[in-house]
Design brief:
Chains A, B: This is Pyridine nucleotide-disulfide oxidoreductase. The structure is a homodimer. The first copy, chain A, is an alpha/beta fold. The first copy, chain A, is built from twelve helices and 25 strands.
Chain lengths: ~475, ~475
């Protein structure tokens, strides 16, 4: 009798990476159930479609259903896994109003995450979250005047045409509120400004991009303000006001008339299929996984935005829903299920974001409080230094925050911002941190120097030098 | 009786870094003898002055003599140290036709390196090496038509005015030969093209930039050709032909009429002051130094382009005359002499170079033959991968060569080329190599991903994945 297939729930980064790797390594069947119509798309590209930088919606697709079929994967779109029976080793699937049970030998839950909206009413026209190609398409349509809407921008994909049509029929807004000053909020602010909208950005904490630290949060706020954005920090949007269409946002006793709101206040893992299984959970209610992506249920794996991971600095369980983590973990689970046990890898929390011309990166622990809570004795420094030799044009002052443990000297985290190749420099710190380097070792690294690219002492080295000097005291 | 001073020979990167650090840390005298008129200038910026990217010659100065005096350093320009007596602990100094002996408690030889020209006759007008501000000024003057020469470009420094005047009086060339396809040759090629000159680049080896490996050498050659440069590889220039002024270069039995030649075939350490002392030498006849910059002579240190260093990958003595090494080693020696023993640090051979729009970086061992000779069992792969998400505009195919040891999996070296933030990515590899990471560890690094800066799998990770797959076989 043939063995039951490897069943994957979710046809995006983690799920299809797993299925593809599995098929390359094993001569067994793999079935992927995807509840939606879209598969394998680049979430991170959605703001750039809205901005107009990406020409067609379908440019954001990595793999077509035909590509997936060519890889020997049995992909079933419009199939929602509604429950899992770990005892029976079956999943219950709903499709086209029918329901059936599918046995599995191994199961991977790769259902991703969804945007949260808190207590805000998102049913009003003109209110958007940016999570999925249909919402990106609807947002773009809403921003375009009815007479100018160009359907060819959608390309040839299974878009929700009714939703696009309704939004394209509405007059575009003159002013928008972006609620949330994280990655999505900052990227959507840039996108909306590019579309000619007057943007008010609301952030509940005192700084934008909290994972990047205060210095960089302030630099981003200044840069957005230079571009005409009104930045409200320490401001809570409590209500979206309107009858059918949004008319205003209410915040801190004030009211700002807007014709649009974009909500980017966070995401939550899509764990519904595992409800009732008693599977262990971790931070953010994400599904707890071990070094190989295994959950607490036998033969059940989880990967991507729905799963926890191990933090490279603290060694603790963490939840960092980002793209590379999902691809890597999916691929590793595919190999493991195929018989080649492969760790999913640790996450260092490396992230980069663009705000107009400003490039920002962060990795590890950037906050002394978080580091102290994790048992470290943290010290940190923030410096600014030129990105190129002073005499070579085109450089920019680069801000570097570096955090280390006083006891061991180990680098715990850092953040970088600047307009000249700043973001990619975070990879140097990510590599140093995952290699457990001390600040003294970081300071002695033989990094690149040539006038067009770096001064003799790269900003990363300057930060290490200053912080190391303080640790010596 | 007061202790004799710390004496430094050479007023450039290593020497002044040492003197500055020493004065900050110790309450003792330091004397710096510099044979020339210039101090503390950016060698690496000279091609960009010639190109016109750097406006004034004096923009290349880091410190003025007044800055140095403010640091409490006794700087004597126009003072040449002609010999060292390790027994007496004195140096013999020539200045203004006089000669005197200067006792030292500790001595640092930081005399740098000079351009070599092999058997080529460099006395002809129109023949230049790019090593020092006077040669940069003369080269620029030669490229400018007499009627248009602008003395203000020189700024307010001790330039050799007679030499500039002679070169400014000559009509600029239409065609130039650049002899040598290393860093200086490639950078000067870019500079001369920017000045409207028809450039023929001659390289004796089969590829440009040999330390970057064949794949990148070929990519650079293609890029130069696209910009109208005639690249001659495997071609030996044997003679510079002319009476007073260069008229042609002879190579491989052929003869090319040119009005200019720039020689960039290498440098040699300026060890003359130590002649007759019996000091130990290392590769390239550079002065052998230990982990603290000490030579084989008591109380005599060497740092910068004149000294050897320890290689981070092979652990062997090496000679890599580059700017960061000089600054760092000088600073470390200054601290050590001041009483705080500080290692000069290893060198990984990290280097970056720009060729028009193409950015190139290299680190460690990039050649299988060199790696095998150092006792490794090398394997290497070269890949190309996009620098950004495919749908985000502005990216470029990035070439990555990665070399590792089959036995241990350790990353030994790599090189990168591309037009979009390629050079600075070499710092990721430099950090990995100095941290002794394996290819498998490199592949699992949590590097940055965001569409404007990197695809999900950064080109560095793609290279690691492919090479690791081969090591697994």
């Amino acid at each position: 009798m043939a063995r039951d297939p490897f069943v994957v729930v979710g046809g995006d980064a983690a799920g299809l990476s797993a299925a593809s790797k599995f098929r390359r390594e094993a001569d067994r069947d793999v079935v992927v159930f995807e509840r939606g119509r879209w598969i394998s798309y680049a979430h991170c590209g959605e703001p750039y479609f809205v901005e107009g930088t990406v020409e067609r919606l379908t440019d954001l697709l990595s793999l077509s259903p035909a590509d997936v079929a060519d890889r020997g994967i049995d992909l079933r779109r419009g199939h929602e896994v509604v429950s899992v029976s770990p005892e029976q080793r079956t999943v219950t699937v709903e499709a086209d109003g029918d329901r059936f049970d599918q046995p599995y030998a191994e199961l991977l839950v790769a259902t991703g995450a969804s945007a949260t909206t808190g207590a805000l009413d998102t049913a009003l026209d003109g209110v958007f979250t940016i999570h999925g190609l249909d919402s990106a398409a609807a947002t773009d349509a809403y921003l375009t005047s009815p007479a100018e809407y160009d359907w060819s921008r959608l390309g040839d994909g299974p878009v929700d045409e009714a939703r696009v049509e309704r939004n394209a029929a509405l007059d575009p807004p003159e002013r928008a509120a972006v609620v949330g000053g994280g990655y999505v909020g900052v990227e959507m602010t840039e996108a909306l400004v590019a579309r000619g909208v007057d943007v008010h950005l609301f952030q509940r904490p005192e700084h934008l991009l909290p994972p990047f630290g205060e210095a960089i949060g302030e630099r981003v706020a200044d840069h957005l303000a230079e571009r005409g954005v009104t930045v409200h920090t320490g401001a809570s949007v409590t209500k979206l006001v309107g009858d059918d269409r949004i008319e205003a946002v209410a915040y801190d006793g004030e009211r700002l008339p807007v014709g649009m709101a974009v909500i980017g206040i966070g995401v939550t893992p899509n764990t519904a299929p595992l409800d009732g299984t008693g599977v262990d959970r971790g931070p953010g209610t994400a599904v707890r996984t071990d070094a190989y992506g295994r959950t607490s249920l036998p033969a059940v794996y989880a990967a991507g935005d729905v799963a926890t991971a191990r933090h490279a600095v603290t060694g603790a369980e963490t939840w960092v829903p980002l793209g590379l983590t999902a691809n890597r973990a999916g691929r590793a689970v595919g190999a493991t299920v195929a018989g080649d046990p492969t760790p999913v890898g640790e996450v260092a929390g490396t992230a980069v974001v663009k705000a107009f011309d400003l490039e920002c990166g962060r990795v590890g622990l950037t906050d002394e409080g978080t580091a102290a809570a994790a048992g470290f004795d943290p010290a940190s420094e923030t410096i600014t230094a030129g990105s190129r030799s002073g005499y070579y044009p085109g450089g920019d002052e680069t801000t570097v925050t570096l955090l280390a443990d006083r006891t061991t000297g180990r680098v715990l985290g850092g953040a970088i911002a600047g307009r000249d190749r700043a973001a990619i420099r975070i990879d140097t710190l990510a590599t140093a941190i995952e290699s457990d380097l001390t600040v003294a070792e970081l300071e002695r690294l033989d990094l690149a120097y040539a006038p067009p690219f770096s001064p003799v002492w790269d900003p990363v080295l300057v930060a290490a030098k200053v912080l190391n000097g303080r640790l010596d005291d």
